[in-house]
Design goal:
With 370 residues, the chain is of the alpha+beta class. It folds into 3 domains: 5-70, no CATH class; 77-164, DNA polymerase, domain 1, CATH 1.10.150.130; 189-364, hpI Integrase, Chain A. It has helices at residues 25-32, 52-58, 68-73, 82-97, 102-119, 129-141, 147-164, 189-197, 202-214, 219-222, 253-265, 286-300, 310-321, 326-333, 349-353, 358-364; strands spanning 5-11, 14-20, 38-40, 45-49, 65-66, 229-230, 235-241, 245-250. Helix 4 (82-97) packs antiparallel against helix 5 (102-119), helix 5 crosses helix 7 and helix 9 (202-214) packs across helix 13.
Length: 370
């Protein structure tokens, strides 16, 4: 039996148990059976929900908790010079002070660390734009990194040199890799009906209903709180979505009935979030919601290469097909960037409640069963 070490960490704001052991097929197979078990390339180990049952089995206590940032600081820095270790700490501390999201901090740190490990004893702050050009060419040609990874790596370097070292216009001469323009993968109305009807579990069904009814990202329905449902004004409040932006979206009349029915039947009753996981008062895991979608897709016999996010794409496409102004759709979806925010109009509450969710249209046809 391999020797296993256990750590209690926070990952994306949630308590998780990190398990580390030498490669062992039997243990890998065992841990994969644990609900919501995930492999972390950053931590080089498996992590599972920090439920009381799991904590008791692993023999760890609540006071053992450490943050993702402190855990990653303790790893992956062997071979770095003292100077570059200090620069890495400055880099992470600046992101923490700026309150960037955990996912952004983890990604930027990982990408910056790739450069530091390559430099070995050379000071990172001594690099010139020509040095960085050669490095990015090495990443593209030798490492054959994908376009998205190249963008993330360049963004991390840009953050360090411009935010930490205050180098202005440092990256103007470094071209960015052109991203592959991917068209959104969309489900038709009949496929949406088949997908929903493939589920019998009311909680799973309600999660997908909620996502499609307002074009939500997978993190948004699982983090939806009971207090954020406003049936009087027919709105859902989406708190701290991508980019830490709050927004209001339309509350479908059909979804109101669905959620009331779900709440009436579900036991135990949710305390904080509409959809809660194993721990009372804790949100339902996003990864589990994605698995729910995939199981429903397979059961419905849908062959398209679609994911949970396709519910959001389908919502937007179906609204466009109904003739809804694209400016309103962008507002509902929260698609605002620094360069484009001023081009789009905010949706007033009066117009928001007059936009009918495509869920209501499909429901009226009688194709979906609850």
């Amino acid at each position: 039996m391999p020797q296993v070490t256990y750590h209690l960490i926070t990952h994306r704001g949630r308590k998780r148990i990190l398990l580390k052991f030498e490669h062992n097929k039997e243990w890998n197979a065992r841990i994969k059976k644990v609900e919501d078990a995930q492999w972390s390339a950053t931590h080089k180990g498996w992590h599972i929900p920090a439920t009381k049952t799991n904590m008791d089995k692993c023999g760890i206590k609540e006071e053992a908790i450490i943050t993702v940032s402190s855990q990653t600081k303790a790893e992956n820095i062997i071979g770095l010079s003292r100077n570059n270790k200090e620069q890495l700490k400055l880099f992470v501390d600046r992101m923490l002070l700026q309150k960037l999201s955990n996912s952004t901090i983890t990604t930027y740190r990982k990408e910056f660390l790739q450069l530091l490990q390559l430099l070995k004893k050379k000071n990172v702050q001594d690099l010139t734009p020509d040095d960085l050009k050669r490095y990015m060419l090495y990443c593209a040609e030798k490492l054959k990194l994908r376009e998205n990874t190249l963008h993330s790596r360049l963004n991390a370097l840009k953050y360090y040199f411009e935010k930490i070292l205050k180098r202005e216009k440092f990256f103007w001469e470094i071209p960015r890799a052109k991203k592959h323009l991917q068209l959104p993968k969309v489900l038709g109305e009949k496929e949406i009906s088949k997908l929903f009807n493939a589920l019998t579990n009311k909680k799973h069904k309600a999660i997908l209903f909620t996502a499609y009814s307002a074009g939500l990202r997978v993190s948004e329905p699982v983090n939806l709180k009971l207090k954020h449902i406003d049936s009087d004004r027919m709105q859902l409040f989406i708190e701290k979505a991508k980019g830490k932006k709050d927004r209001y979206v339309t509350l479908s009349p059909v979804l109101v009935d669905v959620l009331r029915s779900y709440y009436k039947e579900i036991k135990p009753k949710p305390r904080v979030y509409v959809f809660e996981g194993e721990l009372p008062g804790e949100p339902y895991p996003s990864i589990t919601a994605q698995k729910v979608f995939q199981r429903a897709k397979e059961k419905a016999g849908i062959q398209k290469d679609v994911s949970f996010h396709s519910l959001r794409h389908s919502f937007a496409t179906h609204l466009l097909e109904k003739g809804i102004d694209i400016r309103f759709i962008k507002d509902i979806l929260g698609h605002f960037s620094i360069k484009t925010t001023e081009r789009y109009l905010h949706v007033t509450r009066e117009r928001l409640v007059n936009i009918t969710s495509p869920l209501d249209d499909i429901w009226e046809k009688g194709d979906i069963k609850w």
